[in-house]
Amino acid sequence: VLASGKGGVGKSTTAVNIALALAANDSTKEVGLLDADIYGPSIPKMMNLKGNPELTPKNLMRPLKNYGIACMSMGFLIEETAPVVWRGLMVMSAIEKLLRQVDWGQLDYLVIDMPPGTGDVQLSVSQNVPIAGAVIISTPQDIALLDARKGAEMFRKVHVPVLGLVQNMSVFQCPKCKHETHIFGADGVRDLAKSLELDILGDIPLHVNIRETCDSGQPVVISQPQSDAVSLVQCTLNRVDGTSHRCSLNRKVYLNVAQGNKVL
C-alpha cells in the first residue's frame, strides 16, 4: 500500500507511476491498482479511464483497464462531479465491495492507493488484507512530516511492515538556470526516516512533467519513459520491490480475494 498522513503530498501520483513501472519492467506480470480513497478518488483521471464496471456472471465487478493495468475506484461508480457525503459505515461498506466484489483475475501485484490519514479505511484494509508492506509518501515540510510519522506508527501498530519512506517534491530546479530551490524544506523525510529507523526508498523532485502528464491521463512512465523523472521513479520502485521481498520472506503475502502475489 502507498499511504500518507497528509493529503496533497503526491501519493496517488506516485502510486500510479509505481504500478505502471511494475508492469513496464516485466510484461508477463499482471498488475492491479486499487483506489481506496472513497471521498477523493484520483485514479480514474490519472489513468484516463471512464465508465462503469461490467459485472461477471458471478456478479463481480470487472476492473477497468488501461496501459495494461487493471483499475478499480469509487470514481467508476459515481458521477465525476458528485461528492461522496457518507458516514463511516457506508465508507466501510464501499471498501468491502472494492476488496471482495471485484474480479481481479490472476494478479502478481496489487498496488493500493490509500486515502490520507489513519482512519477507518486504513484499519479495514490492514486488518482484512495480508499486505506485503506499506510505503509512506511525504513532502519534506514539517506539517506533512508530523502526519507521516503517525501513518508509519499506525501501520506498525497493526503489524504491517513499513518498507520505508519516499520524499516527494523534494526540490524544484529552475528549467532555465538550473538553480535548485527546496520549496518545502530540505531532507525532512530523511531525518524522519532516521528517527524511525526506516529506509529512504526514493527522492522525487517537484517536476512539472510529473504533474502535467498525470493531469492529462498519460502518466510520465508511459508518456516520457526516457525522462529523468522516470529514472527516479524506477529507482524508487527497485528499492520498494527489494525491501518488500525481504519483508515477505517471513510473512504470508498471498491475497485470496485478488489472487495476487504481492499487495503493495
UniProtKB/TrEMBL annotation:
GO terms for biological process: iron-sulfur cluster assembly; mitochondrial respiratory chain complex I assembly. PROSITE patterns: MRP. Keywords: 4Fe-4S, ATP-binding, Iron, Iron-sulfur, Metal-binding, Mitochondrion, Nucleotide-binding, Transit peptide. It holds the Pfam family ParA. One of its GO terms (cellular component) is mitochondrial matrix. GO terms for molecular function: 4 iron, 4 sulfur cluster binding; ATP binding; ATP-dependent FeS chaperone activity; metal ion binding. It is found in: Mitochondrion. InterPro entries: Mrp-like_CS (IPR000808), Mrp/NBP35_ATP-bd (IPR019591), NUBPL-like (IPR044304), P-loop_NTPase (IPR027417), YlxH/NBP35 (IPR033756). Its cofactor is [4Fe-4S] cluster. Its main location: mitochondrion. Gene3D superfamilies: P-loop containing nucleotide triphosphate hydrolases. Iron-sulfur cluster transfer protein involved in the assembly of the mitochondrial membrane respiratory chain NADH dehydrogenase (Complex I). May deliver one or more Fe-S clusters to complex I subunits. Belongs to the Mrp/NBP35 ATP-binding proteins family. This is Iron-sulfur cluster transfer protein NUBPL. It comes from Nothoprocta perdicaria (Chilean tinamou).
